[in-house]
Every structure is written in C-alpha cells, then in structure tokens.
C-alpha cells in the first residue's frame, strides 16, 4: 500500500450469476477485480437458476473478497468504505452479498454504499485508464436489462427507453438454445456468426413506439425458421442463422441508439453490459465508448466505481438495509 | 470468551451474546435486521466487535434465503474479525429448548423439517413419528397444530418460548469452532431445477 490511511473502496456484487469483489481507489484505479463466474454451473439448465445461484454465491462471497484483498496486496484496514449491489437482480442472490458486506462494514464501523446495479454498469465507464466523462448517451444491454440512458452527469441519468419483453442478452441466450448452442448464448452466437452471412435470413425487428425495445417476436421468427429444417439442414445453415439473428438484434439496438442521439443531441455514445462485448455491436457503433470486455459483464469494480458518486450510509444506519429485486 | 450466536433459518431470527455459560443479552426479530440485533446486543453488553471470541450459527433447516443471510453474515464477520465458529442445527437448538420435545420447523409446501432418530428430515406433517402425548415445538408445530393435536400430540400455546430456536442454545450446543467458510447450510432439499434436470 502506498500512502497512509484508508484509501480503498471495496466493492461486492452478487446480483445474478457472477460472484465478484474488487478494490478501487477514489481516483477510479482498479487495484483488483475478482469475478467468479457461475456460467458453467448454469449451462446445464440453459439459464440462470436463482436457487442454484444463491447457493453458489454463499460459497464464493468471502473467498472472492479475500482474493480481491490479496491481489491488491491490501487488508481491510486499508478500506475506507464498502460498496455493495442492493438491486435490481435476483433477491436471494443480492441478500448474500448484502449480508456479507454489511457484516464486514459493521465489524469495522465503516460506512456502506448501497449501489444500484444499473448505476454500476454506467460507472464501468468511469474507471481508469480511460475514464469517460458525462454527458453521454448510454446503451445498457445485458442478460437482464436493455435500456437507453441519457447520462447527464455522474449523478443524474434519465431513462429514455427499455425493453418491453426480453432483454437483448436474453434474446441471444434463447436464440442460442434454438440453434442448439451452449450457454451463455451471446458468446456462442457471436463466434458462429463470424462464419455466416448476416443477410441470409431476414428476421423482423419489432417496431415499438418511442425508444423502447422488443425482442420476443425475433425469437419466435427464429423458432419458425429452425422448425422447417431437419438436423442436417440446421447444421449446414446454423452459422447463417446465427449471423442473421445477431444482425437483427444489433440492428434494433443501433437504430434506437441513433434515434436517441438525434432526439437528445448527444454526440457521445457509450455501450455497457454483457452485450457490449458483442463484436458485431462494437463494429456497428465504431465511435461508441465501451468499457474493456472484462468490465462489460457483471463485476464489482463497477460497483466500487459507482460508489464514488453516491453518499455513503454511515454506521449504524445501514444495519437494517434490505435488497430490492426491481424498482 | 464472548460467543455471538444467531439463527435466521425461521421466520423469527434469534440472536444472543453469551459469555461462557452466562447469557448477556438476547434478541428476536427477522433475518433482514439481524445485524441491527447484533449491534444492540453488543451495546447492551458494552462490548466492541473486536471483543468477540467465536460465532455459533444456525444452519437450518428452514428458509433457504434466511439461512443464507445468517451464514453470509457469519462469513463476513469471520473474515473481518478473524473469528472461527460452529454450525448448529436449528432443530437441535429447538430440541434443546424443549427437553423431550420434537422440533418441527415449517418447510413450506405442506411439509416440515424434523429430527428422526437424531437426523434432520423433511416430511409431511401426517408422517411425523408421534407417540401419544408427544410434545411438538417450532413454527411447524404451530402451523399444523390441529393436525398434530388430532394425532395426540401436545403443542404449547403459540406464544410459548419453546417454539423459538433461541440462540443461547446454539451457543450451548456449539462444538469445536472451525473456519466459518467451511460451515454449510442444511438445505435438505435440492433446488427444483436439479429435480427437473435429473
Ligand atoms: Zn448486469
């Protein structure tokens, strides 16, 4: 540790299927970021199972905190405050991280910073070495969320639009399942799509009013296309289907981003969330700022980062703090 | 040595601060406010977190989420304060509070958790092994009072102390303390998703 006293923010994130802890400085430098993904565990179910996720979070929550401290060559005596995801997410999963974080904070009389998971994703853009400064238009797309945000400052954001049904990442997962690919589906489709022709199939993108999204019709269209094929035909056309399906999702996202940019007059666009790791989306928005891949998916560095702009709750006011599944 | 004991497996969370055989303070609330209780216990005893010597934690069976809140809290405390702890079955703590009684914890889905020959099991209330006049305690006994009484069991009034798995019993039953990260919940049920996959 350089410098005297407490200077680090400990972040804890357990809202879905990643158990994560990180140490971040006040300036947004990541000292450590440990993510223990449960993706393999959930692959056999084809999606995240809340009870399975919660059980795993309990096993992993303190080991990831220990590892984050070790990697940063720090101890809890170097921690100034503890940031933890309070919601939205799987309630049973959130409660594990919140209970552990509260216990650590209480035992040392440290303040606690409850962080909204979505603010965390946005704050992934504020980390070193290339922090982005507001204002900007932000597309947050993941397995749980798809929304367009007008980020005015580090503390103010307006929701411009969100999905009316499936999240974009969910659409990838469901599409991957229909194509007989593994979980998580986004990565699998992305890989297969590189060998396919994105114009081989035309999948409809639902036009909903305003700046909202809808992906459930797309999934149904893929289902019909797959249903007409026997096993050999599916094998032969799988990469074209993947490329066309991905193209449709990306087109829907990009169109909305362009419309929102026009309406708000924002010149800077940023993409965050697991879907921001998609290579076709990145190619379609070449000027958009994006966090490094490891910070796109759920992690705790983004939670600690968000805490830099949120008032900390002093001891003992957070002791009865509860998590929330949705807002 | 100060033992902090708590159990969040049932709808009523219990906690106690115990020094040797002496119960310094006790609280009853809900799992979500466990740390508020813990804070109050230490204030009452004029103690600081760093004065704690060990933990005794209820492992269930009971509410999955409730048990996890207790164990995640214990893990956080152990990590921060360098404590070791013991896991104690919620059923064993209930039984200790009602000598000769059968612990019956509501398992939802029209089932209860109980001890059969000292082993935790999940059963339909109608399948509980009951002798005539058997004393049944716990939130499961309260919930299925009518059925149990029809089968000849004795269930104390709802507000009877013995229905609570008082954390002082966890402290009393605690064995040799271990690394808290090694303590695991007594789930007794696999996740539904596993049942569907199998
Ligand atoms: Zn997320």
Protein described:
The complex is a heterodimer of chains A (327) and B (198). Chain A is α/β, with parallel strands linked by helices and 327 residues long. Chain A folds into two domains: 8-126 and 298-320, Nucleotidyltransferase, domain 5 (2-Layer Sandwich); 136-290, 2-Layer Sandwich (Nucleotidyltransferase, domain 5). Chain A has helices at 39-43, 50-71, 91-108, 117-123, 168-178, 185-193, 216-227, 231-264, 279-284, 293-296, 301-306; strands spanning 8-13, 18-25, 30-37, 79-87, 112-116, 136-141, 146-151, 157-162, 269-272, 289-290. Chain A is globular and about 65 Å long. Chain A starts with 7 loop residues before the first strand and ends in a 21-residue tail after the last helix. The model of chain A has no long low-confidence stretch (mean pLDDT 94). Chain B has two domains: 2-90 and 165-190, Nucleotidyltransferase, domain 5 (2-Layer Sandwich); 92-161, no CATH class. The radius of gyration of chain B is 17 Å and the shape is globular. The termini of chain B are far apart. The chains are: A alpha/beta (327), B alpha/beta (198). At the A-B interface, α2 and α3 of A face α1, α2 and α7 of B. The structure holds zinc ion. Zinc ion is lined by residues 117, 121, 142, 144, 273, 298 of chain A.
């Amino acid at each position: 540790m350089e410098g005297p006293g407490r200077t680090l923010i400990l972040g804890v994130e357990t809202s879905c299927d990643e158990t994560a802890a990180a140490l971040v400085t006040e300036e947004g430098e990541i000292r450590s970021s440990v993510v223990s993904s449960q993706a393999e565990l959930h692959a056999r179910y084809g999606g995240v199972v809340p009870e399975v996720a919660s059980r795993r979070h309990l096993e992993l929550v303190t080991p990831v905190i220990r590892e984050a401290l070790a990697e940063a060559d720090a101890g809890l005596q170097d921690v100034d405050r503890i940031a933890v995801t309070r919601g939205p997410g799987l309630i049973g999963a959130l409660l594990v991280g919140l209970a552990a974080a509260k216990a650590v904070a209480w035992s040392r009389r440290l303040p606690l910073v409850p962080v909204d998971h979505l603010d965390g994703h946005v704050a992934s853009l504020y980390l070193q070495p290339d922090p982005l400064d507001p204002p900007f238009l932000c597309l947050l797309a993941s397995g749980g969320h798809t929304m367009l945000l007008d980020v005015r400052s580090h503390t103010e954001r307006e929701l411009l639009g969100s999905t009316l049904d499936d999240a974009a990442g969910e659409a990838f997962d469901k599409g991957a399942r229909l194509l007989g690919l593994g979980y998580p589906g986004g990565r699998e489709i992305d890989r297969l799509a590189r060998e396919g022709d994105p114009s081989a199939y035309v999948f409809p993108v639902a036009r909903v009013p305003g700046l909202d999204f809808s992906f459930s019709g797309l999934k149904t269209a893929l289902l019909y296309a797959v249903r007409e094929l026997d096993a050999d035909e599916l094998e032969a056309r799988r990469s074209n289907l993947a490329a066309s399906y991905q193209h449709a999702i990306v087109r829907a996202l990009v169109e909305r981003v362009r419309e929102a940019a026009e309406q708000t007059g924002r010149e800077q666009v940023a993409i965050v969330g697991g879907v921001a790791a998609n290579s076709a989306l990145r190619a379609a928005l070449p000027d958009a700022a994006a966090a490094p891949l490891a910070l796109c998916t759920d992690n705790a560095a983004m939670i600690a980062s968000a805490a830099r702009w949120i008032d900390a709750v002093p001891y003992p006011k957070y002791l009865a703090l509860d998590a929330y599944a949705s807002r | 040595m100060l033992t902090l004991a708590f159990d969040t497996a049932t709808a009523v969370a219990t906690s106690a601060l115990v020094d040797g055989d002496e119960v310094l303070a006790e609280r009853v609330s809900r799992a979500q406010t466990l740390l508020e209780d813990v804070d109050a216990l230490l204030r009452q005893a004029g103690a600081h977190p760093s004065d704690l010597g060990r933990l005794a934690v209820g492992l269930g069976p009971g509410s999955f989420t409730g048990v996890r809140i207790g164990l995640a809290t214990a893990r956080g405390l152990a990590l921060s304060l360098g404590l070791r702890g013991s896991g104690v079955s919620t059923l064993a703590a209930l039984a200790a509070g009602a000598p000769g009684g059968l612990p019956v914890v509501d398992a939802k889905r029209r089932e209860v958790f109980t001890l059969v020959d000292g082993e935790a099991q999940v059963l339909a209330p109608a399948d509980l092994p009951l002798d005539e006049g058997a004393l049944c305690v716990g939130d499961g006994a309260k919930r299925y009072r009518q059925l149990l009484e029809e089968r000849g069991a004795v269930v104390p009034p709802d507000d009877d102390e013995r229905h609570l798995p008082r954390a002082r019993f966890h402290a009393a039953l605690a064995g040799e303390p271990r690394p808290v990260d090694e303590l695991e919940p007594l789930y007794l049920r696999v996740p539904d998703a596993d049942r569907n996959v199998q």
